[in-house]
Amino acid sequence: MTTVVKVEEKLYVNRYLVDAGRPHIKVRPHETPSAALVALTHVCPAGCYTTNDRGQVEVAPDGCMECGTCRVLTADSGEVEWNYPRGGYGVLFKFG
Ligand code: SF4
To answer: What does the UniProt keyword field contain (predicted)?
Structure first.
């Protein structure tokens, strides 16, 4: 019998060391987000992007897996400032 494991359950085993006050990803100030920026609220595998009540996109990168999707999707618009976390911070993947 095959056991099906949900993606959320796999993500839950990862661990993160948050660099408090120094987010490695920032959304540049904007009035109206581009379609690419809005898309991040749906495609970020860690659910880091949300839309606030003014329709602007925000990021809380604490659970970021450093996949780079948001970096690639906003490369043309420049709406996201993306860096790797400082050494020792960020995601710690657990395999198995
Ligand atoms: S790098 Fe990947 S996981 Fe991290 S915020 Fe961007 S899309 Fe989400």
So the answer is: Electron transport, Iron, Iron-sulfur, Metal-binding, Transport
- Looking at 3.30.70.20, 3.40.50.2020, 3.40.140.10, 1.10.10.10, the CATH number of the domain 7-92 comes to 3.30.70.20
Closest-CA residue, ligand 1 atom 8, reads 44
Closest CA to 24 of 70, 77, 62: 62
User: Which residue among 58, 65, 71, 74 is best mutated to probe the pocket of ligand 1, counting the most ligand atoms within 8 A of its Cβ?
Assistant: 65
Predicted model pTM: 0.89
Distance from residue 4's CA to the centre of ligand 1 (Å): 24
pLDDT digit string, tens, across residues 16-54? 999 999 999 999 999 999 999 999 999 999 999 999 999
Backbone φ/ψ region at 47: left (φ over 0), alpha (ψ -120 to 50), beta: left
